[in-house]
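User: Here's a structure from my thesis project, written as structure tokens. My advisor, Dr. K., wants to see whether a designed sequence matches the one we expressed. Can you design one independently, without my sequence as a hint?
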């Protein structure tokens, strides 16, 4: 669970960095207060963050079974039988599963603490489990 949390932190930093970076840039260019929030640089930061989030949290897992954080920590998503999850299963996990995590204020992640395989709400919904990436999955 610690490695999985590390992967989530890496993904979070990746998504939030453009927002923070462009806000700092806007501030350095003299914007402050309401001007800072309504600046074009702030909008660019948010746009980049959305593009990175969609790419990292939806598209990349659909193709590889991993986010950047999972890749860097050596984790991947697999089915309960060790096979690669299909597109529908991953789409369900990465969209509906994560939306439920957000709407439950993260409580869906606590399920992993009480599950013997460390499966969180999105894993239970999609029938997946997070495993170390070195394990070969069957097609």
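Assistant: Designed independently from the structure alone:
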């Amino acid at each position: 669970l610690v490695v999985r949390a590390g992967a989530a932190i890496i993904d979070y930093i990746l998504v939030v960095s453009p927002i923070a970076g462009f806000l700092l840039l806007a501030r350095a260019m003299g914007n402050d207060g309401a001007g800072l929030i309504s600046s074009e640089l702030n909008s660019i930061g948010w746009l980049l963050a959305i593009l990175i989030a969609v790419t990292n949290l939806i598209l990349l897992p659909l193709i590889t079974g991993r986010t950047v954080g999972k890749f860097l920590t050596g984790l991947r998503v697999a089915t309960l039988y060790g096979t690669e999850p299909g597109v529908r299963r991953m789409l369900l996990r990465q969209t509906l599963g994560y939306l439920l995590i957000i709407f439950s204020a993260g409580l869906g992640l606590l399920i992993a603490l009480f599950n013997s395989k460390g499966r969180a709400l999105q894993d239970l919904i999609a029938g997946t489990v997070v495993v170390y990436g070195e394990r070969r999955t069957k097609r």
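When you compare it with your expressed construct, this may help: Strands lie at 75-79, 128-132.
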